[in-house]
Write a structure and sequence with these properties.
Helix content: 10-25%
Order of helices and strands: EEEHEEEHHHEHEHEEHHEEEEEEEEEEEE
CATH architecture of the largest domain: 3-Layer(aba) Sandwich
Largest sheet: 6 strands, mixed
Oligomer: single chain
CATH superfamily of the largest domain: P-loop containing nucleotide triphosphate hydrolases
Radius of gyration: 24 Å
Strand order of the largest sheet: 6-7-8-3-9-10
Amino acid sequence: MAQIKLSNLRHSYSSSPAGDADYALKKIDLTWEDGGAYALLGPSGCGKSTLLNIISGLLIPSEGKVLFDDQDVTALPPARRNIAQVFQFPVIYDTMTVYDNLAFPLRNRGRDEETVKRRVTAIAEMLEVTTMLTTRAANLSPDNKQKISMGRGLVREDVNVVMFDEPLTVIDPHLKWKLRSKLKELHQRVKATMIYVTHDQTEALTFADQVVVMQDGEVVQIGTPVDLFERPAHTFVGHFIGSPGMNVLPCEVRGGAAFFGGERIALEGPVSGAGDGMAEIGIRPEFVSVSKTGEGIAAHIRKVADIGRHKVVEAIAHDSRIHAIMDGEAPDAGDAVTLEFNRSQTRLYKDGWLASSPEGGAR
């Protein structure tokens, strides 16, 4: 296993980039610690695959370095990086048995059969496929094929990092939670450095201890799932994490206070960089209260969606849509209501970036 460090990394597919717009990856400085479980999360086209290819050695970055345990591997080919990869589509040999599929990476590197048997048996037990070891891979279900593909990545003891490139894309939704749980369990048992690349927030947040969120070739936030939900560093993170995502409302900042539609909105704490940048208020639907009789921002209900566990209410106030999550009885479409924001969760953003601090100091 290894610590992976990306230092001053940038990459452009253009031979003569003229500016940031020509870079698929803008400047990235990032460290993944040895043995950690990480997710690389972002929409299609944000640079996830480019970054993955640079770490694996399929692509040499235009600028910067890739270091494994402080060793510069930027120019090393994939075969010399000791990396295991698990892809969207299971990479297994249908004509081989499950045992031989799991054994292949070890035999290919000349390991003795005693070592092969020990590792294959251990990984098969972790994956709960011991009873399938003599079964031909062609006869497996899609989720079991992907289990074997994961096992091929984990069976070697000399890998620096195991990288998962959207490994659950082709798995039926009702089976995904089983494989996510199994992958988390495997990480806890083998303690390998793992990087999970996905556009699915559920997969990222349930697997990783630390999530790296990317947008347009930039890392916009690194944090725990709780950090990303409770305190998005950028409005993109607020939109991307959560269902529905964070409400982002236009506002004006005057005298250190925020005004939405002319109404003063109490923020979590003081505002930095007074007067600079486009100002917006960010508040998650979970922290918006809806009332027919209370005080607050006057609004009317546009629609209510009952999703079982709770109801998602969409209200209109000052020509802006505001979502709220409610338990129990909800108002009807067309009803006049008032909205109240939980002050401790009401944040100010400027040009997309967090610009307020909690009362009593930054967190």
